[in-house]
What does this fold into?
Amino acid sequence: MKHIISLLIPKRNEFTLDLPPGAQLLKVEVIYKRPFLQAIADKDSHSEERRTFRLVHLGETLLSFNDMTFIDSFTENRVGEFGEDEMEIWHLFEVK
It folds into this structure.
């Protein structure tokens, strides 16, 4: 049986997540100021596959997109150095 799972995205350029085999990636949702990857996965699966992801900040230079598949973009709001509101834009890719 399939269900939707939610996994916290760590704030690192490249990271791995253990997902049930064949999990279908849906989107990134910011919940309580933290980004989570939403996916549809087999509820009864007892195995996992390690998948690699890349988190890219808006304006970051990338040498190649050939080995990556775009998943979603998301924004994070934060308070700047002088108390002003700032917004950061991130893009999530899966590395193949």
About this structure: The longest strand covers residues 68-79. The chain has a mean pLDDT of 90. The radius of gyration is 15 Å.
